[in-house]
Amino acid sequence: MIVILKQEARQEQIEKLQHFFTGLGLKIHMSQGESCTIMGLVGDTTQVDEDMITSLDAVEAVRRVQEPYKKANRKFHPTDTVVDVGGVKIGGGNFQIIAGPCSVENEAQIISVAKSVKEAGATLLRGGAFKPRTSPYAFQGLHDEGLRLLLKAKEATGLPIVTEIMDAADLPLFEQVDMIQVGARNMQNFELLKKLGKVNKPILLKRGLANTIQELLMSAEYIMAGGNEQVVLCERGIRTFETATRNTLDLSAIPVLHEKTHLPVIVDPSHATGVSRLVKPMAVAAAACGADGLIIEVHNDPKHALCDGAQSLTPEEFQDVSNRVFAVRKIMA
Amino acid sequence: MIVILKQEARQEQIEKLQHFFTGLGLKIHMSQGESCTIMGLVGDTTQVDEDMITSLDAVEAVRRVQEPYKKANRKFHPTDTVVDVGGVKIGGGNFQIIAGPCSVENEAQIISVAKSVKEAGATLLRGGAFKPRTSPYAFQGLHDEGLRLLLKAKEATGLPIVTEIMDAADLPLFEQVDMIQVGARNMQNFELLKKLGKVNKPILLKRGLANTIQELLMSAEYIMAGGNEQVVLCERGIRTFETATRNTLDLSAIPVLHEKTHLPVIVDPSHATGVSRLVKPMAVAAAACGADGLIIEVHNDPKHALCDGAQSLTPEEFQDVSNRVFAVRKIMA
Amino acid sequence: MIVILKQEARQEQIEKLQHFFTGLGLKIHMSQGESCTIMGLVGDTTQVDEDMITSLDAVEAVRRVQEPYKKANRKFHPTDTVVDVGGVKIGGGNFQIIAGPCSVENEAQIISVAKSVKEAGATLLRGGAFKPRTSPYAFQGLHDEGLRLLLKAKEATGLPIVTEIMDAADLPLFEQVDMIQVGARNMQNFELLKKLGKVNKPILLKRGLANTIQELLMSAEYIMAGGNEQVVLCERGIRTFETATRNTLDLSAIPVLHEKTHLPVIVDPSHATGVSRLVKPMAVAAAACGADGLIIEVHNDPKHALCDGAQSLTPEEFQDVSNRVFAVRKIMA
Amino acid sequence: MIVILKQEARQEQIEKLQHFFTGLGLKIHMSQGESCTIMGLVGDTTQVDEDMITSLDAVEAVRRVQEPYKKANRKFHPTDTVVDVGGVKIGGGNFQIIAGPCSVENEAQIISVAKSVKEAGATLLRGGAFKPRTSPYAFQGLHDEGLRLLLKAKEATGLPIVTEIMDAADLPLFEQVDMIQVGARNMQNFELLKKLGKVNKPILLKRGLANTIQELLMSAEYIMAGGNEQVVLCERGIRTFETATRNTLDLSAIPVLHEKTHLPVIVDPSHATGVSRLVKPMAVAAAACGADGLIIEVHNDPKHALCDGAQSLTPEEFQDVSNRVFAVRKIMA
């Protein structure tokens, strides 16, 4: 970490700062420039609060040289992490498609979708039992009944299940779930992350709508620091000024994340775009630029469903996406 | 709500949609234009999922005419809500300054700051016991011990206390707290909001870094729908491309919120800017454009504190801010 | 266009508005709802200033039903436009790679790069003679000398040339250029667009860093309204809060643009990411989601160039990108 | 400037880089850390292209210590610049209100508005003759006829005039204009900036919708580098995800700009908010946080004008704003 001091920094301010940094066990290299003095900090600077130091009167700017995350950092763990979800491997060359309906609605629906997506190449089943909804008046999911139905679908198809948690108090209900998803709006719900760090189960961590790649990695670090290193990251669109799509899918985050971390990275084209006809091009593009997997919404019965054009694909459309995704992966191999 | 259908929408799609809306108890007015058909929905559309309808194949666009929030909506509650925090009123012409240190550190500190800010015009005491930190390696607050010290400071000064909750499981610890704060990163932690809707205590709800004004009001609606209508909103800066300030303080949100809702709106210039020397101009500007209060970080002992230039003001600086804020309020009255 | 009136709109305000709209030759359908009155405008509303109407006292909101662009609108021109650049076709199934150095430096350089990229599959040559630079102290390009060298490279290889204009006053110098590029920072330089509308030459119009898809189409409309309908659009990254990449490449803009317009859409992965090692994944991803072409920076002599790791690819790297791009296109066909 | 090298940087890469920097006349201080090597550059680094260096293979990151602007930099010119516009001074304690209609429409209108705003405290007259419009089909202004009418209004009232230029080719028409405005969309029209650098007339430079404070200063530097140091900066709202206001007025940019530059800074609350009823609170807030002036839209005849609720104030509303602005300035003095 480099601390650039102001020209007008007083000696006592500099000494107070030096004292503070040495108290944290850091070594300091001072170097005097023409128009400023630079303090180079050597040692473990992950505990230094960059914002706080930046706001000091004597400080012009702070520049981090080392990333503030350790366990998630590829520098210290060059080999790809492979996450095992009920026997299905993600990362390190293993590519998986997680598919299923937005919400679990009833037994027939979830089992039917599970069978269709398995046939079309999905290896993991998704389905929402606890639904984060902007409006308190909207349907909030079937809760424990939804989890029970997901397990029935797992029984029927053998697909391990992935589903979202919204409150750490519900953790006991998730005991048989194979992978716990943290939604975008909870990416910085630090108390939830801490508790998931104590769970012996893979976590699917979605990037927040307005969170940087570094913040995503810091949230992964929260879980890993607790002892649970089975984390899969998920890019699902960020919030920008553009309103033509629900979010802006940040596909360049995939190769960037692969440089910075050893954790697997998957992409959710359904939530990013919000429109089923954009799911196919973005799913294939995600595979083309190196994603380790996809999570895609598929519904079962387009003839009777209201949402026949929604962000969910039909099983046939999903089959087409799946075929092209695997073909593109061969080219990029 | 207006649903604009595509030119190529098929009759069966339109009928399915009509059936769906009438099933929700809505009346439909169809009107045929040159290049599209428009469906006007009359009735309570708060339960309609705009995103879902937008994504239907037959639908070109959906435009809400009525806001999706009811209890927070000024249209249905024209009079300003006045929130009472331990006897101190916010809103409806009542302006209050909440002040105190970023974190509660020890008894001497919190009591000393409490006394200083009271003398300088603050009527409520803030102080963090549970601290949301981006890094798992950073200090996370004194927790229940911090709450205990805050109560001591309240005893010493009579100032009601405001402090942040990060996990609904900690609610029993907050029984004697006068106002519970929901931080920016938890603004869409819907499970927490639901539980706060059942609490008989005022809530300070901070706007998320990337949340729209409408989403802020929907989160307030979550709390109010549970029965707790004592909500104070807080603008604290949003995330933009600009990096010269930590966040971009969106002061025009204040008059906009005052049009849309009857709830009080306060401003946090300390977290928005991250630099103490920007707190004064932005605090006064907030008062100038109609804020119902401010929440400002003040620390006690600049001589020995490391953070003598941080986002916290000294008691003397705070006094100066306080004087000017009240003078500007007189001009704007 | 739908104008939603406020409940409290006065009769005289409504009449004034009706008078205004009929004066523009529009027909008005009034429809009275429970909590508001809606004015539906039928006719050519492209001339109506949405912002101005929105800001009227009597108006709650304005919703456009029809897009404000006509000539660029796929609704009125369902067939793909094919743009011919010196005999090389873009759009309507024709995919082209434009390649070349960031800046034209000297004759040897530009001819050498032109030969390399031609061999590796590029069909058009790019190279900057007028360079938009944030700093007035940075190198601004070789200007007319640069254009002369580009023409030499065209002579040597047969590749038509694409280069950026920054000032309409320079138009006479561009007479032999095959395609004129409008850079991101000039996307809303409306006077330049108007003048390019009078030119009989294809235009490559780059999306501005903070411009919406609709604004990009409105800028294309400016050129087309002048009579020049040979416009190719280019996505090159937008400005967001993320700082890990120079810009955020908005690949979902490609399928969205293909729905809204008949104009070809290409992608610039070099400027979007700013780092050569991200060019390959993003170039292939762009092809996967339907781009009609790519514009890529390639430099000639990595051994002596300073910028051997910059956003430019070596000819070998470019060959690899080119191969994979064409392979992916086959899969998506 | 600090260049942080990667751990794996090869010696030849480092030497090539050193050679490049010494070739620019810079001195290099190398310092070896545990996990990286840092190159400190001493000398005039304004000519170094940060983006280019960042993209080199051997480079981890580049951090600027000195700002890339010199003439606009307060460090080198600690005293406030006072800009004289036809005898009216802005900056250095001189506060001015520029007011007038959005567009010049006819002689009666512009003279009537000019008289009203003068009476209510405005000291400079604005009015658009060349109008930047998103749509080619919208009214584009009266052009030279508009400039002629503005000069008539100046004659009638003595108010110096401020009006926007959109094309450097029109410069001869602006000879009698007192201050030339560069609109937000042309903030990085570098060729226009260069030509304005050769003009002997004050320039009002508006911040682009998606431009950082540093980019605004670099654009001012373009004008100043040409020899014209009479530049006034204008904050007019930035583009964010929020849609409740047309733009997000970034008022904290004012105190930040005052730290970084000696140039005067004014605020345009009319364009930022797009709604007249938000102009008053934001105008007063701008004065509260230190603006050196305001530019406000005022129209003349609300009874007959269509836009009686638009972003323009009536003369009476303007009078009220003006009174409160001057009262707040006294408090902040």
Your description of this structure?
Four copies of one chain form a homotetramer. Helices cover 33% and strands 18% of the residues of chain A. The model of chain A has no long low-confidence stretch (mean pLDDT 91). Chain A is built from ten helices and 14 strands. The longest helix of chain A has 18 residues, at 315-332. In chain A, helix 3 crosses helix 4 (144-157). Chain A has 333 residues and is of the alpha/beta class. Chain A has helices at 11-23, 50-54, 107-119, 144-157, 190-196, 213-225, 253-260, 269-273, 276-288, 315-332, and strands spanning 2-5, 27-32, 37-42, 59-63, 83-85, 88-90, 96-100, 124-126, 161-165, 179-182, 203-206, 231-235, 265-267, 293-297. Chains A and B meet through helix 1, helix 2, helix 5 and helix 6 of A and helix 1, helix 2, helix 5 and helix 6 of B.
Q: Helix amount of chain A, in percent?
A: 25-40%
- Write the H/E string of chain A, N to C: EHEEHEEEEHEHEEHEHEHEHHEH
Helix tally of chain A equals 10
Rg measurement of chain A, Å:
23 Å
Q: Which structural category do the helix and sheet elements of chain A fall into?
A: alpha/beta
The greatest interface here is: A-B, 56 and 56 residues
Q: What best-fitting shape of chain A do the alpha-carbon axes yield?
A: elongated
The quaternary state of the protein chains shown equals homotetramer
Strand order of the largest sheet of chain A: 13-12-11-10-9-8-7-14
User: Total number of β-strand segments of chain A?
Assistant: 14
- Sheet having the most strands of chain A: 8 strands, parallel
Low-pLDDT sequence parts of chain A: none
How far do the termini of chain A sit from each other?
A: 37 Å
- Overall average pLDDT of chain A: 91
Q: What portion of the residues of chain A fall into strands of 2 or more residues?
A: 15-25%
